[in-house]
Amino acid sequence: MAETTKLQLCSFQLADATFGLDTMLVQEIIKVPDITKVHLAPKEITGIINLRGKIVTIVDLAIKLDLPTKVELAKRRIIIVESQEEPFGLMVDFINDVISIDTVELDEAPSNVRVAQTRFIAGVFRNNEQLIAILNLDEVITLAEQNSDQEA
After folding, report:
1. Mean of the per-residue pLDDT values of the chain
2. Residue 70 contacts by C-beta under 8 Å, 6 or more apart in sequence?
3. Domain limits of the chain?
4. Which of 66, 17, 16, 55 is closest to 33 using CA atoms?
5. What pLDDT was estimated at residue 142?
6. Alpha-carbon dihedral sign for residues 72, 76, 82, 86
7. How far is CA 60 from the centre of its chain?
8. Is 139 left (phi over 0), alpha (psi -120 to 50) or beta?
9. 101 to 7, 58, 119: CA distances (angstroms)
10. Cα–Cα dist 96/76, whole Å
11. Which residue would you say has higher pLDDT here, 2 or 50?
C-alpha cells in the first residue's frame, strides 16, 4: 500500500485560475506596500520593497504566468517566500484558504497547458469540481533571476 503524505497548500487566485503553494514555503502574506520600481527589470518584476530591513523582490505572478488581472493593486496580496536564501514576494489577486491534501491525489500538469506555463506547475489537485495548480516555486524564482540577470 502506498504511503500518503499530507501537504498543506496556501491557495490563491490569479484571474480565473486557482493555484496552491506549499505552506512550508510561505513566510507571511502582506498587503501591497509602496513598491520601488527597478530600472530595466523584466516586466514581471514589479519592483522591490523594504520588509523589516530586508530588501524583497516582488514578482507579479499574473504577468509571469500571462494571466489577465483586473484586481486593483490595493486589494491584491503578496506572499513572502524565500528561495536560495533571498526573500521574494509573489503578488497574487486574492488569498483563498489553506487546503490539506494527500500527495497521492496530485496529478501531473496537463499536456494541453501551454509549454511556457507547464514549467511553473508542479502538479494539479482536484478539489471537488475545482482544479488547483500547484506552483513550482523554484522555477518561478529561477526564471525571474535569470531574466533580471539577462536584462541588467
Report:
1. 85
2. none
3. 7-146
4. 55
5. 77
6. positive
7. 8
8. alpha
9. 5, 28, 22
10. 12
11. 50
Is domain 7-146 in CATH 2.40.50.180, yes or no? Answer: yes
Span 33-43, average pLDDT = 93
C-alpha to C-alpha distance for 1 and 49, rounded to whole angstroms: 48
Neighbouring-strand partners of residue 30: 78
How many whole angstroms separate alpha carbon 42 and alpha carbon 50? 20
What is the separation of C-alpha 8 from the centre of its chain, rounded to a whole number of angstroms? 15
Model pLDDT, residue 53: 94
Contacts (Cβ under 8 Å, ≥6 apart) of 122: 109, 134, 135, 136
- The per-residue pLDDT for range 53-101, each reduced to its tens digit, is 999 999 999 999 989 988 999 999 999 999 888 999 999 999 999 998 8
Q: Is the pLDDT of residue 1 over 50?
A: no
pLDDT band at residue 145 using 50, 70 and 90 as cut-offs: low
